[in-house]
Recover the amino acids of this structure.
């Protein structure tokens, strides 16, 4: 999945320890989504208090005069099941979670099918974070960073920078070809879908375009929750979810 | 075109590059401020942390429970610290829980007796003289925390407050035996330093419990706080 806007190529972070560029790009992308009416869904399967902390920052700003923004903390260990019925195309999902979290990885892998932008804040092994659009990372295996303020710093600054972006309305207009919008030249190369109902040879599937009926003869049998790659109305392969 | 009337609202701004560079620089500055504030706070509060750790350890070996509370973002710091004591990444698990997570209790108390009493009424129900009460506030003025500390100290609990700015009313309250102050005026930076203070306190308690007869030396602040940043 690509980051939003052409500037992401120019500002791609080279120093993995630098928090500046990843935070700048995440804040701009989040501000664009929120300006367009998105809800920010916050999950932290392993550390639920961090999801609550992010949501309360956005809903009830500590700085008087900053606008309240729609962020929701969704609790429970199964973040995929909790978010599936709630998220809408165009929303943003933010996870505060360790790099080894299989729940968060499953969530990030569904983001394209759900049509949502993702931010992953965490620590430890960052291999799985390639599945997220924006990664705000503490490169430290030590669990102390869960408690000593370093994860908190990242979402505090994300909130602060997002509000700076709101002072630049001209930059909040979506760029001409958002990755998750239908583009005549790049659509249908192989879109991700999540199975809602699996039938015989056909299935009802959720994609960034909405709910579609697709042919599944090539990849049957399928089960609800499976991720498939769709090309020209057919599921052509099953993807790890 | 009416841009000349509202030059401060640049609706025609299209190049995000300059703003992104500003945002990135701002993020780095905030990280530097946070790291320095945390180190300074840990150094300044080191004697108090040692004293609190000793007193808490004396109580914990006699089966004390540690209750932690706060409002808003500080409630999440309370959850984090209580979880650190109860289910630690290393060291011994200790009886600790937060007073902010049970929506049935909070809404019952808030509705029936008022929000100012949501923590003190729980301490009336659960607090024993040997226990410990820890409250997080950025202002130091939250009335439900001040009420909780008054109730706790009246019942013999050890009371520990974490506050920002110059400590607010918590710093001068006779009911807060130890007040750890983060001397700053940004709520966000205060909370980041408070989280590090909470972690340092937990580490000091663990150290005291594993070596009860040795003089307590805290891990140096530079290694407690943000070692890689």
């Amino acid at each position: 999945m690509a980051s939003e806007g052409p500037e992401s190529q120019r500002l791609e972070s080279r120093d993995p320890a630098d928090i500046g560029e990843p935070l700048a790009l995440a804040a701009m992308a989040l501000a664009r989504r929120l300006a367009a009416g998105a809800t920010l869904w916050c999950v932290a399967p392993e550390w639920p208090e961090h999801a609550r902390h992010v949501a309360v920052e956005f809903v009830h700003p500590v700085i008087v005069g900053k606008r309240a923004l729609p962020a929701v903390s969704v609790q429970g260990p199964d973040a995929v099941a909790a978010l599936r019925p709630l998220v809408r195309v165009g929303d943003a999902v933010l996870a505060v979670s360790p790099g080894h979290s299989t729940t968060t990885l499953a969530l990030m892998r569904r983001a394209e099918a759900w049509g949502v932008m993702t931010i992953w804040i965490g620590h430890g092994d960052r291999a799985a974070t390639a599945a997220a659009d924006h990664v705000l990372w503490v490169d430290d295996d030590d669990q102390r960073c869960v408690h000593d303020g370093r994860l908190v710093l990242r979402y505090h600054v994300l909130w602060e920078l997002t509000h700076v972006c709101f002072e630049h309305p001209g930059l909040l207009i979506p760029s001409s070809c958002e990755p998750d919008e239908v583009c005549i030249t790049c659509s249908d190369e192989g879109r991700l879908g999540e199975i809602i109902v699996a039938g015989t040879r056909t299935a009802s599937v959720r994609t960034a375009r909405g709910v579609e009926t697709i042919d599944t003869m090539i990849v049957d049998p399928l089960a609800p929750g499976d991720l498939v790659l769709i090309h020209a109305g057919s599921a052509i392969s099953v993807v790890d979810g | 075109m009416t841009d000349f009337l509202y030059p401060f609202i640049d609706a025609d701004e299209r190049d995000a590059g300059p703003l992104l560079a500003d945002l990135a620089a701002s993020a780095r500055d905030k990280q530097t401020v946070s790291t320095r504030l945390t180190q300074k706070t840990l150094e300044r509060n080191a004697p108090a942390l040692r004293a609190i750790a000793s007193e808490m350890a004396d109580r914990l070996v006699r089966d004390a429970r540690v209750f932690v509370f706060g409002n808003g973002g500080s409630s999440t710091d309370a959850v984090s610290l209580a979880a650190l004591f109860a289910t630690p990444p290393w060291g011994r698990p200790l009886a600790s829980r937060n007073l902010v997570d049970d929506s049935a209790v909070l809404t019952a108390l808030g509705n029936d007796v008022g929000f100012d009493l949501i923590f003190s009424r729980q301490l009336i129900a659960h607090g024993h003289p040997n226990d410990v009460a820890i409250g997080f506030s950025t202002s130091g003025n939250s009335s439900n925390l001040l009420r909780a500390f008054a109730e706790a100290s009246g019942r013999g609990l050890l009371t520990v407050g974490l506050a920002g700015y110059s400590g607010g009313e918590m710093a001068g309250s006779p009911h807060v035996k130890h007040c750890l102050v983060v001397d700053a005026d940004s709520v966000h930076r205060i909370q980041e330093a408070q989280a590090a203070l909470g972690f340092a306190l937990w580490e000091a308690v663990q150290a005291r419990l594993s070596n009860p007869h040795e003089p307590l030396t805290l891990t140096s602040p530079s290694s407690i706080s943000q070692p890689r940043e």
